[in-house]
Structures are given as C-alpha cells and as structure tokens.
C-alpha cells in the first residue's frame, strides 16, 4: 500500500485543512470544545441510563412526564397550524320544521307505492312509434 494515500474520509481531511489554517491558539480552543462536547454527551447518556435503571427498580415511570411549559412542534406552526373545528353551521334542513324527513326505523316504513307510468314521447308518435314489447312498460 502506498504511503501517500490517506485512509481518512473527505470530511476529516477538510476539517484538518480548516484547522491548520487557523492560528494555534484557536486550534487548541476548537479541539478542547469538541472534546468537552463528546465528554458531556457521554455524561448525559450515563445520567439518563442511571435514571432509567433507578425508575425500573422503583417501579415508577421510566420516562419523565414533559414539563408544563415545554411546547411541541405544533405550537410553532403559526398560520400553517390546522384550524380548530368551528361549531356546526345551521343548514337548510334545520328550518324545515314539520316538513323535515321523519327518522323511522326501516321495519315500520310502508312499502313504496308504484306510480302509474308517465306518458312518454313515443305515446304521441301515433303510427310512427315503434311497436311496444311487454318490457317497455317498465322503462
């Protein structure tokens, strides 16, 4: 394997180039801040793990309830938030009074009555009308 080929990724090479461009005292500060961030994340992870273990042993909830003023993402939607449903607006059916359809169970409704067939245009054609067949009366 050639010695001039770097095994580092492109991101780490860019990071090193930027870091080398900065003065020495800024390089040290940046490295210390990165180190502190990594250690702080380890500490928080360990703290959560211990709290979870204690909660399981005590029989309490493993996850703490959210604080009262902790908002959610929906609180920041502004004009894009879904609109609250307004109370139902009155419709025309609300003003029908005695003419409103009656809600009766299906068992009590009378059978629909068949109306006599309406005259059609073919009834007025006279001798020019096509001959009727028995099934035409129901059309």
Description:
The protein has 139 residues and is mainly alpha-helical. Helix content is 34%, strand content 0%. The chain contains 2 helices and no strands. It is elongated and about 110 Å long. 0% of the residues are buried.
Termini distance?
Answer: 91 Å
> Helix/strand-derived class?
mainly alpha
Give the count of helical stretches: 2
Q: Classify the helix fraction into a percent range.
A: 25-40%
Order of helices and strands: HH
User: Spans of 5+ residues with little confidence (pLDDT < 50)?
Assistant: none
Structure summary, number of beta strands: 0
CA-based gyration radius: 41 Å
The shape is elongated
Described by strand count, sense and barrel closure, the largest sheet is: none
Strand content: under 5%
Mean pLDDT: 76
Provide a compact summary of the structure.
The protein has 2 helices and no strands.
What's the arrangement of secondary structure elements?
Blueprint: H1 10-21, H2 24-58
Notable features of this structure?
139 residues, membrane, 2 helices
